[in-house]
Amino acid sequence: MLANQKVAVIGMGKMGTTIVKAMIQNGLVAPSQIVGSTGHEQTAERAAKEAGIRVVTDSQSAVRDANIVILAVKPQTMMSVLDTIGPYLNSEQLFISLAAAMSLAKIEAKLPAGSPTIRAMPNLPALVKEGMTVMCTGQYAMKSHIEMATAIFGSFGLVRVIDNEDLMDAVTALAGSGPAYGYIIIESLAEGGVKAGLPRSLATTLAAQAMRGAAAMVLETGEHPAKLKDMVTTPAGTTVDGIMALEEGSLRVALIKAVDAATAKSKELSKG
Ligand SMILES: NC(=O)c1ccc[n+]([C@@H]2O[C@H](COP(=O)([O-])OP(=O)(O)OC[C@H]3O[C@@H](n4cnc5c(N)ncnc54)[C@H](OP(=O)(O)O)[C@@H]3O)[C@@H](O)[C@H]2O)c1
After folding, report:
1. Best exposed site among 70, 92, 96, 162 by fewest CB in 10 Å?
2. Nearest atom (ligand 1) to Cα of 11
3. Mean pLDDT in residue range 213-229
4. What is the pTM of this model?
């Protein structure tokens, strides 16, 4: 699908580099089809070595011949970068912005009129090809553009497209921040294993794999999590006692409040 496409990745930090590596590893593009850019010479060299592509510090030259421009700089540098590369852009190019809490309207205002634009929110498990990306599209993004973006983000995880951009704050709070909540759950379960006498490394592996297994069951069977929980919970068995302790500790409410609070924070940042 991307066989004849030239891709510019503006910002070869954690996300930019992850995307480039996944695209190449999945055979979506050859290294020669991608050019990256960074703010500093030293990081350009490091990123070029890590991703195996040409990385420049002159973003204008990177975007000039590109069909797809992935904008992967920090939100606070995005506007000045768009000002710098603006004169070298055209409305035939597909723009994909990764900037958290930055609306399509704000990005589109800096692009040539009529440019197909996609806002994407990936998350960091992309590093191990277990990412979750949610995209919303600007008014000029066609089916073919969405398919190309889906192929790019699909090279390191699941992809979903939503119609309502307002929901991107909730997406950020759940999928973006979610791994942090998961790490706390895994760390705490492992602590419980240690309390019960397991060596820490074994306890951590058991906790992480139990969470991975539970997540895979939800995703692969499509069953409601409550039904899967019931399958584990034998009458008068061990699990139900554990569940009672979780309910006493208000785990559910704590997690709901976590997503709610992070959504509110994302909304606040989006306004700024
Ligand atoms: N990390 C995540 O989990 C995550 C998840 C979802 C979305 N995002 C979004 O992805 C974007 C990138 O995040 P990140 O975590 O990858 O950030 P990062 O690691 O800090 O990378 C930022 C990159 O931008 C480069 N840069 C800075 N100024 C530049 C300029 N003028 N021209 C070209 N490149 C420039 C930096 O190069 P130098 O180091 O040389 O300055 C660096 O390579 C952000 O908008 C963020 O909101 C990140």
Report:
1. 92
2. 24
3. 98
4. 0.95
